[in-house]
Predict the structure.
Amino acid sequence: MRAFPIIVSSPSGGGKTTIVQRLLKRDKTLARVVTATTRAPRTGEKDGRDYHFWTEKQFLSAVKKGQMLEWAHVHAHYYGIPKSSVDGLMKKDICPVLVIDVQGAKTVSKKYPQAIKIFIVPPSLAELKKRIAARKDHTQDVALRLKTAKKELKEICHYNYVVLNDQLTQAVADVKQIIGAEKLKTARRVKDLKLSKIL
Ligand code: ADP
């Protein structure tokens, strides 16, 4: 198998972080690409594990040097993906998992055409609102996030797969199944089959 990037998107509060955390627990063939951000850490978030918490100066300097795969200014903060994080994992034959918004997904999939894109949808907008509110992040603007969510949901057609995040265990199992099937795709295996002289 040749490693390929796995892009996971959802509106804010859709459950992408939770699903990916569970997915990566026991699977050493996958690793999350840590995003850099200028927003403040939420309770329990750890620098380097959940995000690279950078100052605005650090962030803009990395952008200027062309070290970011993509970046955006969302809800008054910068978010971006250091290119080296993705390439470093692929070199080790580990699939980089990118938890990113729809704009980021567009940019990244243009640069990595072999990537797969999975969209996580909440069961309803009412449930999404509840989950955002339950996250105990008092700095977030729930109304603004819901408005953005409606726009983002319209981008679903650009994704290869849609996973409904109603029951968490089912959603995680669905994502596992998608990745399992993708790893077995002929186009991803030909090189290895040739190396082992089967082809
Ligand atoms: P995102 O990373 O997409 O912004 P999170 O993973 O942070 O979303 O999830 C938002 C909130 O919803 C969290 O408090 C999380 O525990 C909760 N959550 C996620 N999936 C489910 C689910 N299937 N059922 C109930 N709550 C969920």
